[in-house]
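Section 5.1 Outputs to date
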Amino acid sequence: MEALHGTLAELRSEFRERMSKFEADLNKTPSVASGGASSGLVQDYAAFKRFTFDALECIQRQMEFFARDLDALEMRGRRKILLFHGVPETTKEITAVVVANVIKDKLSMDTFTTSDIRRCHRVGSLTSKTRPRPILVKMQDMGIRDRVWYSKTKLKGTGITLSEFLTKARHQVFMAARDKFGVSNCWTKQGHIHVLGPDGARHRLLSLSDLRAIGEPATILSGLPRWSRGRSAAPPGEFSEAVKMMNTDLTRIVKWSTAYGLKVNPAKTQVIVVGSPRLRSKITWSHVSPIVFNGTTIPYSDTVKNLGILIDRDFSWGPQLGH
């Protein structure tokens, strides 16, 4: 799957490079520069370029969906598996007996026996005599697995830890989340990765794009206004700062769209400020910069329409009910 992603990225890069060269040569043609007979060729070329990049983008999304489904199936096959880390290793050990003793002695599960284990072995090659290899343990059923998993807090101070056997993709996301938000704010449950975000909310992750969507950790956001760290709205006194941040985001959207051959239409864009009349009256509009999207100033509206629903600035639903 990673090879396919790489191939698609190389293909997109090659298309962009060749098309840029062809476009530069086309613009040098005298008949094109003067708007002559070749102007139709320019339009056909632009349409073909949009179609090509749209097709590549569609293939990219389909591959991402396929990769997610494949990852989910692989994770489903690992549901009963746990990894034991830090268990001392000997040359002629029977790993099932070693694990059973750890579970009985450390987790106080006296009824646990080797018959509760379906498969058990060390993972990886022996590269260090001082650092034991983790033990992969597949339980007979989910009930036993969950009892062991939820008793793992008893291992604190023993040097032994438990982890779920994540797929390669989920393991990469988990490690990236720990690097970004800290070990104490990241955990796994039933193969899913959970993160405590800077807004105090819990997020479930499946991919790196999900991780990027959460935002920056609290240490980075500490210098930003309080409303910008979570999901709350900007207070009137900081409204102008919110508009500046929105303009910055819109500029990024335009750059991203241009890079991928997409065209945005500011004429179909609307802006509305939702809030009570008392809060809106506190906004000093003369100090507020206009919202600009792709070089076009977007005026503020009292009512906007989204998916056929009319939304007014008071959230009264009056225009929708009277429509």
